[in-house]
Amino acid sequence: MSTLGHVRTELEAGAPNAVSRMLGLLGDEWNLLIVQQSLLGATRFGEYLARLPISNAVLTTRLRGLTGEAMLEQREYQVNPPRTEYLLTPRGRALWPMMLLIWDWERRWVPDHVAQLPAMRHDTCGALFTPLLTCGACTAPSTDTDVKLRWGPSGSWERSTPITVTRRRGGATGPPGLYPETMSVFGNRWSAAILIAAFLGASRFGDFQRQLGAPPASVSARLRAFVANGVLSGSDEYLLTDKGRAFFGVLVTALEWGQHWFHAPEGPAVVLTHRACGERFTARVACDQCAKALSGDDVLVETVTT
């Protein structure tokens, strides 16, 4: 079995940075949904097809891409005829904090969708819980107003433009799984980039278009969608709403994932500082019932009953 998913990717100096690589991989609806289902136990081609409204061709392309990026690895489970399954690598499994915070955001901010979401139980304390984003240095609960973001040595919008090697969503035959509103917010590379730009202070159309270098039509369409779903407010000036600000935990864990697994020789693309303690901010996701840090192995998914 490959060891690529156990080690970080070393980027070239001056090349697209960790933000660019993260946006290209996670700013894709199908990649997010495949990782989601992998974390929920899917490993085989037929299982993904049964769980997702995805065509054979699109699934084949995305599985190939995720394997090439060392987020999944193939293992043969049958010789005659040959059959393979797709297993999460440590790189892929490390996305569980982001996916857990997506679940919590959907549950809190998409009321029409709550009944479809499973409950989460913390195996350590036995309680149903809500994940809390806390500072890894001082363990204090943290929101976007508690964390300062600035560009680091490898950070700039020129180097952060999302790179993608797959076409946009195609071949869908139904609703996109457990996190439909997240897919409209984050499951598109330009949507994800615009949201990061908003947290970095952009608020006007010209700011977004100039900083991202995105096609004006794409920026306009994404801003309209964000206003329609309540993530941004305004028309001349686009400001994050409470709903939009609540997505900060998802973004910061995605950024940390990208910067851990894609290393630029100059240093990080984005530097995060916890204002209260003054230390470099690292995301610690904790149980709101016992305050202990969560791990992927001690989060249990409860069966949804109707």
UniProtKB/TrEMBL annotation:
UniProt cross-references to Pfam families, sorted A to Z: HxlR
Protein name as it appears in the record: HxlR family transcriptional regulator
Record GO terms (molecular function): DNA binding
Residue ranges of domain HTH hxlR-type in the record: 15-114, 175-266
InterPro entries attached to this UniProt entry: HTH_HxlR, WH-like_DNA-bd_sf, WH_DNA-bd_sf
UniProt keyword annotations, A-Z: DNA-binding, Transcription, Transcription regulation
